[in-house]
Amino acid sequence: MHVFEHVPQRHGAELPAATRTRSFVEVRRGYDGAQDATSEAARCFSCGVCNSCDRCVEHCPEGILRRDADGYHFDYDYCKGCGVCATECPRSVVFMAEL
Predict the structure, then answer these.
(1) Residues 50 and 72 in one domain
(2) Which residues 6+ apart lie within 8 Å of 26 measured at CB?
(3) Is 8 exposed, middle or buried (0-12, 13-18, 19+ CB in 10 A)?
(4) What is the spatial distance between Cα 67 and Cα 9, in angstroms, rounded to a whole number?
(5) So what's the pLDDT on residue 1?
(6) Which of 26, 41, 93, 99 is the most exposed place for a label (fewest CB within 10 A)?
(7) Phi, psi dihedrals of residue 86, rounded to the nearest 5°
């Protein structure tokens, strides 16, 4: 959990309890705007979006994974396919696949 920034959960608007019991109107009204919805979606731990935590680089036993200004680069000529980088990725961005 130290990889992720703590952000409190936002709740969307709901109808008051008195109104709920007397109608069939939708109870949950959703978020007030796109910004609220976007910030709530950003709290996701496993959405497949890299948060640049560098865990894959730190745990690569062979040092074949590098990070520069353009992002992360694998040197596939030297990779042994151990899968440690995929195991350590908290958002499942790095994964093992057959080519």
Answers:
(1) yes
(2) 15
(3) exposed
(4) 32
(5) 54
(6) 99
(7) -70, -40
- Say whether pTM exceeds 0.90: no
Tokens for 50, please give them. 């890299």
What pLDDT does residue 43 have? Answer: 75
Domain that holds residue 52: 46-99
Distance CA 37, CA 34 (A): 5
33: Cβ contacts below 8 Å, ≥ 6 apart: none
CA atoms of 78 and 81, how far apart (whole Å): 9
Number of domains in the chain: 2
pLDDT tens-digit profile of 74-95? 998 999 999 999 998 888 888 8
Rounded Cα distance, 82 and 98, in Å: 13
